[in-house]
Amino acid sequence: MNGALDPTAGFDQPVEAMILARAQRGDMQAFAELYQRFGRACFQLALRILGQRQQAEDLVQEVFLKMMDTIRSYRGDAPFAAWLKRLTVNACIDQLRKQRPGGDEDAEAVFAQTAAADADAAGRIDAWSLLARLSPRARAVVTLHELEGYTHAELAAMFRQSESYSKSILARALRRLHALVASKSMPQQVSTWSSRN
Amino acid sequence: MVEPELNLRDIAARLPAGPAFMASTDLWPRIAAEHLARRGRRRIRRTTAATGACVLVAAAIALTWPLRNSPPGVDWQARAQALEIELNAARAVSPVLAADAETEIARVDSALQAAYDRGAQATELAGLWKKRSELLSALLAARQQQLVLTRI
Question: The whole model's pTM is what?
Fold first, then answer.
């Protein structure tokens, strides 16, 4: 697997109950430990989806500020890392909505943006820049489905769209990326991979 | 022929990993500083709101206190004025009045005037009007019984 596309890198770490208890009391040292543990994973996820370093840093800041404000209400029903990851994903999708108000845009509109992204992209291609060839929304769908394991039903709920919307965007985005990689004359074996629904 | 299903990992399998992007090293200090600043601002807002609420409650108590301390439905000023009219009518029939009581009423009147001049509180005024009413009542009662009041 390509290291740059490792799924959920960093979000699979457990957190000691003592750290969480201290964080719930507002202990800054505990917050610093949580950042040390999950800050990178949050940043990588935000960067994959948003595609811009400054936006990703701003988003990580907002996510951690929100986490520090709301951790008292965290009851431990889900692992802390999953909770934090969900905060990050929700913040990313909110950010995408702010960038393009009127979230009912169709898949065609998403790929009209993709064409513009292609035109701007540099000739060099690597695992990171591959995702940068997609529009923000298509990048979010690909990242969340392919790397973070979200199902189409979950994506539909998050984007407030139908499942067919995210399926359509995903299929077209993957075809586009595949064609792009092929056009760079990099021979590769494309194999089937069981899809999630 | 069925098209093979594409997935990102296979597409990217032979691509170089690319640069490892890391967040700025000063991101956490920025987050911590902003958190502490927000916490400080929230504390100031809470303190201001609590102080404002206390001031409002204190003002409400100060304004309603005189009303709470006076017996409901008794307007001592109106009562004193009504008694005075009654007493004046009695005087017209027979001008005999207890000298001590007249002196006492005059003293209460002076106190009332002084109280109004210095903008005294309603409770103090009500107390003086009450005293005046009681004096007038006593005078009237004595008059009705044809007694000479020597001491109130």
Answer: 0.62
